[in-house]
Every structure is written in C-alpha cells, then in structure tokens.
Amino acid sequence: MKSIRIFIVLLITCGLFAAQPAFAAEKPIDHYFFEDVDYDHMAYEEFERFVYADLLDGFKETEVYEEDGEVYEYTSILLKPDKTITRAEFTKMLVSALNLTSDGIKKSFPDVKPSAWYYDYVQIASSRGIVAGKDDGSFKPNEKITRAQMAVMIYRAFQSTIDFSATGTPFKDVPQKNYAFEAIAKTAGAGIVKGYGDTFKPNNFALRSHAVMLIDRALHQEPGTTDDELAVIQTVDRNVTEELLYSEQQNLEALEALYRETTIGYYLAYSLDSLSLLDDPENSEGSISMVQVGEHSSNLVSLNKRFAEVRVDNLKVHISMSEPDMSFEMTIDISGNAFLKKTEDGTWKIYNIVQDQENSEEMFTSAMTGN
C-alpha cells in the first residue's frame, strides 16, 4: 500500500536504494494535483473522486519561468469549479462517468462534425436517448447548459438504474407544461438535484461544480451486486498481499504488472512513479525485509454499480533494514480505506488508498528515530 512506498522514500536518504527514471503511466502523477479547489469547497470530494478515477481531466496550464539562468516549465491543473459548462462538455462528462458505448441508432446533428472532439460523446449519448437536440435539429454543442437541460440528461441517463418512483415537491418556477417538469421532479425526489427554497431556477446556467456533484449523486444511487462485492474485496486483497510480496522480492516487473491490473487513475500513476524509487539492491551492501504480521481483514464500506469503498484493518508489516553503518526494525500499521471504480470492461480497480492519519504520523516518527 501507499505507506510501504512512503517508507521506501525514507530509506533512500539512508542510501539503501537509488533512484531511476519513473515507469511510464498514462498520465503523469502531477496531472492529478489540482490547485483551484480547496478542501473546504462544497464539491471537493466529488472533484477529487472524478479526477482520481480519470473521469475528469481539468485544464492544463503551463507556466514558463527562468531561474539562475535556467528555463523551467511548471504545469498546473485547474478544475475551474465556478466556470459554466457547455452542452458538449457535460455530455462528455456524463458519457465518461457511465462508461457508455453506442447502443442503437445514432442521431446526426449538422453542427456536430466528425472532426470535433465531442463528436463520439454526442453520438453515444444520442444513441441512448440521452440527448435529442434542439427543435431545429441542431445540438448547439458550445451553448452553455442550463440547470433544466442538465436535469433532463441525468434523468434519461440513469432512468434504467435508479429508482425514480418518488417525486419531489414541485418548484413554483417549473410548471407542469415545462418540458423538464418530470425530469426535475423525479431527480429532486431522488435527492440528485436541489433547488433554492421553493424555486429551481431552471434557466440559470449550470457550473462545472454543479455538474460534478449531480452526476456523482446519481452514480452513488445505482445499486451494486453480490458479485461486485466479491470482486471488490478480491481486488483489494490481491493488491495488498502481492505488493508486499513483490516489494520484498524487489520484483519490479511483477509490481508493475500488479499495478496495471489492480489500479487506475491517480493510484496507478502514483504506484508506477513509486517504482522509480527502487533500483538494483546490489548497488548497496544493505538489505531490507518486509513481512506481513498476522492477517488483515477487508470489509465493504459502501458499494454501488460503479464505485466502492473497502476498509482494510490490522494490516501490519514488520520491516527490518540493515547496512554497515545503520540497522533497525519496526512494525507499522498501514490500515486504511481503499476506493475503487469499475472500468469499462467490468473490472474493479483501485483509484486511491487513504491510510489512517494516526498510523501515518506514528510511522514517520518511528522511522526518523529508528525505533
């Protein structure tokens, strides 16, 4: 788990391992660090989940600067939560979140050209009846999406997987003759959309933060299955046990294969980047041993059709390190929570693992003191 690799960073300062170029990931690790959504933002958890699970890329901005005669580039990722979102952008976000593929007859729109970045997403959404276009036959991909339009698309996209039997209290600014009346009433009844008191403001433009929160709420209402529960636990247990085994063996090839088979998004990038911390142990006269102490337990915290959380308890590892001028051993507890996403092929993969904070602090204190 993450703590094993954090500990290896400490070992580097002792000279046990040397660094080498990072193993290549689909996206570099720094593309998962966004700078314009703080922890106290109302949509922070949703944005983090979408970014870490590769459902949202954000906007890359590169700054070029000079220091001591050297030219450097710094790339930052911005999510722009208060920016309005276009119909094309929301369509892509919805299709990506649901892992949708074409199903049925696709509708052609004169203003959606095959060369456009959003072409495939609009085609998929139209084949599934999520989008129908305007009265004149156009799609208006670059038009800002309204709160009403967003509710309609979410209702259509999730109608077969969410229980929409409850109806929310009608909003006074959404009369029954409004084309979005049913969608707004049903998604409000399911707790997906919310209004402003007794008004909904259907014609207001939606923000990116609104889009992420609404899709996330809907995703977490889709029920999972017993088969999903078994697969989720198996994925976590395999990642935990095999990572410890291959780390002790210094088997980088097996570790890379394990990460690619059990992780995605942020955790895949983090895991592959961490492999750069390991080099040929023959370059050092020291040795390291990492052995699991006892048996850990993995228990399901939450499960729905596409997301899951697993609690890992009693995950203790005994680490022994020795080299000519230093040696120590310690047992650390790396229990925590694993977060998973179901991929397009139906496989469950880990996109993040969060270790218990108190255990992390204790590990660093013990490592620095050599206890």
Summarize, please.
With 371 residues, this protein is α+β, with helices and mostly antiparallel strands.
Q: Can you offer a commentary on this structure?
A:
- It is a single chain.
- The chain is of the alpha+beta class.
- Helices cover 35% and strands 19% of the residues.
- It has helices at 2-12, 44-52, 87-97, 119-127, 147-158, 181-189, 208-219, 226-249, 252-262, 265-274, 357-369; strands spanning 59-67, 70-78, 287-293, 297-303, 307-313, 316-323, 326-333, 336-342, 348-355.
- Helix 5 packs across helix 6 (181-189) and helix 9 (252-262) packs antiparallel against helix 10 (265-274).
- The longest helix has 24 residues, at 226-249.
- The relative contact order is 0.15.
Oligomer: single chain
What coarse outline follows from CA principal-axis ratios? globular
Please count the helical segments.
11
Helix-strand pattern, N to C?
A: HHEEHHHHHHHHEEEEEEEH
**Total E-strand runs:** 9
Report the sheet with the most strands, covering strand number, pairing sense and barrel closure: 4 strands, antiparallel
Judged by helices, strands and strand pairing, the structural class is alpha+beta
In what range is the share of β-strand residues?
A: 15-25%
**Percentage of helical residues?**
25-40%
The end-to-end distance, rounded to whole angstroms, is: 21 Å
Overall mean pLDDT stands at 86
